[in-house]
Structures are given as C-alpha cells and as structure tokens.
Design goal:
This protein has four helices and seven strands. It binds zinc ion.
Length: 163
C-alpha cells in the first residue's frame, strides 16, 4: 500500500527495531521542481522512499539559497545500502528525511549559514576535510517526536556534528 502525499504533519509508527513500518509515499516530483527522483535514489537498491516533508524542506532551502544543490546521498535502503546495513538502527537516510549535499569552501559556508538561519533542519553534519570533491553537508529533519520509542533513545536533536 502506498500512502498519499499529504503535506501535513507526519509521524512514524512505533519502531519495529530495524524497519520503517509505514509504506513509502508516492511522491509527486512536480512539487519539488529543482530536484529529480534520480538524485535521491538509493545507490544500492534504486529505491527512493523519501518523505514529502523532507523534500519540501529541501525545495524551500533551494529557493532561499538560489543556487544548485548537488545531492550525493538521499534515500538509503536499510536492507541493501552498505552504510546502513551495518547499523543496528537504520539512520535518518533510511527514513527518507536526510540528504548529503556536495559543497566546499564558500558554498559550504553559505549553505551552512543558510541552514542554520532557516532552522528547519534539526541535524547538520559537516564533512569539510579531505579532497574538495568529497566534502559535503548533511541535513535532516529528524526529531524525537517523529520517531518511535525504540529510536527515541538513539536520537538527539537539534544537533550538529563533524565527520
Ligand atoms: Zn547524511
């Protein structure tokens, strides 16, 4: 069963340890004109179970930022993605509420500044060491409320971290 895109408040049902319990939402990509499904697909499985709420946040960020945002990681299938498969609890990418954006130097500075100003992203991860083409900023909209009881203990939001 596919949930209908609502643009309303979204919640997750109690966490059943390793899997997102709700069926993926059918995304209407016309609502996010600066992004394509291909950009958010899991690189391992090709699935794209993104949450509309997160894509709305990304579209808003894109409009405010007024510059292209290059996504290096969006949805990660918890059963096949090499990063997620190792985790006991799938991370926020597996919940369709996170993306990594390829930025460095001034673009990274400007994007971070914008993300902090907008206050719609609750998790900000900063990877700005290593080769410039591998540098990114992770953004997510996780909260303790939009996760089930099991995950609640694992998550601290709002927060920032470095890689
Ligand atoms: Zn990430």
């Amino acid at each position: 069963m596919i949930r209908i895109e609502s643009h309303g408040v979204y919640t997750y049902k109690p966490f059943n340890k390793a899997k997102r319990t709700e069926a993926p939402v059918k995304i209407d990509w016309r609502n996010y004109p600066n992004f394509k499904e291909e950009e958010f697909k899991c690189t391992a499985s090709g699935l794209c179970n993104m949450e509309p709420k997160f894509l709305e946040a990304m579209q808003y960020l894109r409009q405010q930022f007024a510059r292209p945002l290059k996504i290096s990681s969006g949805y990660r299938d918890p059963t096949t993605h090499p990063v997620e498969i190792k985790k006991v609890v799938p991370g926020v990418h597996s919940w369709g509420i996170a993306a990594d954006i390829l930025v460095s130097h001034k673009l990274a500075y400007d994007l971070l500044s914008m993300a902090l100003t907008l206050k719609i992203f609750t998790g900000i991860g900063i990877k700005q060491n290593g080769h410039p083409t591998g540098r990114f900023i992770h953004l997510d909209i996780a909260t303790q409320e939009n996760y089930g009881d099991f995950f609640k203990k694992e998550i601290i939001r709002p927060t920032v971290w470095s890689y």
